[in-house]
Amino acid sequence: MFFNELKRIFGNLEKIGLAGINILVFGEFPNEINTVLKMIPGGYHPYVTQEVLENQKDPFTVINLPSHLKIVPFLDARFIESNIEEKIKMYRQRGFKGLKLLYVPEEDTMLRIGGMEKAFGRTCKQSEKITSLIIEHASSQGMSILMHADLRKYGNFVAEMIGSYPETNFNIPHFGFSRRAIAFLLDKYPNCYTDMSSLESFMEKDPVSYKGFIKQYQDRILFGNDALISQPERVQSTLKFINRFLEDMEIFHKLVNKNYRNYMTHG
Fold it and tell me: Domains, the chain, ranges and CATH?
């Protein structure tokens, strides 16, 4: 029943013009659920159980559903700390084509994320070192990178990573929590992209400046949505919102299709 509904909604998303969906999957996670929750935004805590975590480890049932929509698995590496090179290579061989990083070395009270310091007992420098290694080996495997980071706090580190791997495409979602900071990266690095996930309320409050920003960087912005795989209707409703908001089919097509294809091209 669930898979039939997914197939129907995937078909609708394809008709709207969406080129593909990246599914984020935890390849590994701590046994202690409280440690897991420290690295997940508070708004998602009600959905996180040990059973859910175990069930999501193999995304290929969903990916192999008959659909023309491109469904791409991204390895969520926020809990990987050791044997990094071997693990990244293993997951790449399993079929993971991209990598997701939640770079929150310190507590984020706004999103209610405990952060790496609380979850793992690491300093910011230690988190930088581990994150750098993950990015290095993901890049060597030809994986596109989705890196959640607040550019207002960690912009220098993110810029260093993007600049160090010019053949790897990076997506810094949510406009990096700063349009000014993400604009600097978009201007400087051709391998940098961003997306508008979870920004609908801000866009509604300030439509003129957001439309201007999207128009200026229309070749580097991706459609984004933070829906769970069990909530594909949220993707559909956000697509409709963006279409109404932009009132420009050429830019809409770039955000949901053309730019995604460019981002997923390594090198």
Answer: 2-263 (3.20.20.140)
